[in-house]
Each structure stands twice: as structure tokens, then as C-alpha cells.
Amino acid sequence: MATKNKDDRNWLRKILSWAFKRFRGASKDGGGTRETSSGFLSDAVRNSVLVESRLHRGDILEIGCGEGIFLKGVINKSERNKIVGLDIRTKMISRIKNIIGEDFNLVNLVLGSGEKSPFKDMSFDRAVCVNIFYNLHGIGIIENIIKEVSRVLRKDGVFIFEFRNKYNPLMHMLYKKVNAYDPSLGELPLNTYYLHEIKKVLKRNNLKIIKKKGIILPLWYLSPIFIIVAKKETN
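Above: the chain sequence. Below: its structure as C-alpha cells.
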């Protein structure tokens, strides 16, 4: 009986591992840690956020710009909007240069944290955060970032972001049990959140959801990922 239970656990671990790696990129950084900015889900999220960001105008800030894939997509030479990428990792600058190429001079890179950015109040019309929230250590850090976003957004500015949906049982299980079948993440967390949690955080920081949509599944409530567009309101 014990052998059967062990075999069942191994079977489940293999299934979870296959599903997780199917939706995750296989590239590695210099230290051998696998990057999570590529892969089916990450690409789908980034493309969807990019589409939403193009529906709005004005200066734009990306929090946690990583390798610069989103920044490259948002460049529009016919517009004179300020494009700023914020990231805490200095090693990303050379990667961003490689990704963006000849248009690198159209982007401003700033070293800093999304929880305490160096920007003045009401500096941007748009702020985005792509494939970041699920790698943070809890809702408290997310609220710190959202509070800072609200500060740097101008009146009627929009914050476009995503989060992994805790109501989706497969997504929740994949992330909760990841260390059992893929130890390459090390201490990097993978978290899911409920929509009502995010709504409360936004409301406390004068941001109101004006659009939400699910990725992958037509039943948006069970979609593994939500894309959120929130508008800054005045007190």
C-alpha cells in the first residue's frame, strides 16, 4: 500500500512538473537560475498587457522591466511619450540593450525598487507591472507597490497589471507545490491571489478597476491569470 501511495505521488509530481515547464521558459541567467520571464503564460500576459497599454496615451512606467521585452513592444516612434523602465537588478541593463537594440536611446532606465521609486508625484499617465506580482513575498509587498503607483500616476492615469488567480485550482496547485517537482527556483516564491484581495488593495490606494479579463480560459472567473486595468481616482 505504501508503495502504491509513493507511486501515485510520483505520478502527480511528474504531471505537475510537465505542466509547469510547459508554461515556463527554459532560459537561464549567468548563475544558472532559470528565468521566468519567458514561456507560454508569461508571453500571453505580456502581449495582453501591451494591447491594453496601447489603448491609453501618455508617459509610461514599467515596474520590474527585467529584460526589456515589454519596453521594446511599447516603443512608438510617432509618439513622444516618456518611456521609463524601473528595475532593482543592475545586470538587466546589458540585457535590455540587447533586446531593444537600435531604439535603446528612446528608453530611460532607472535603478530602483517598485516599493520606493525615485519619481516625483504625478509623473506618469500609465504604469504597468508584468509577470512580477506572483514572484513577490505576499500581498503586503504588492500593496506597497500599488501605493507607490498611485502616488506617481497623474489624475485619471491607469495602472495595468496581472496576477495569478487563486480560484483556478491547477494554477494554485502548480505554484503551491512547485518546490516538490522543480527546485530550480530556489527561494523565489510563486504566489496566487484572490480577485477580492486585489480589489481591496486598489481601493485603499484610490485606484478603481475599469477593466478586467482572464487569460487562456473563456470562463474568466477560473482563468489562471487576470489582467487588470485600474484608474486613479481623486480623494
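The longest strand covers residues 153-164.
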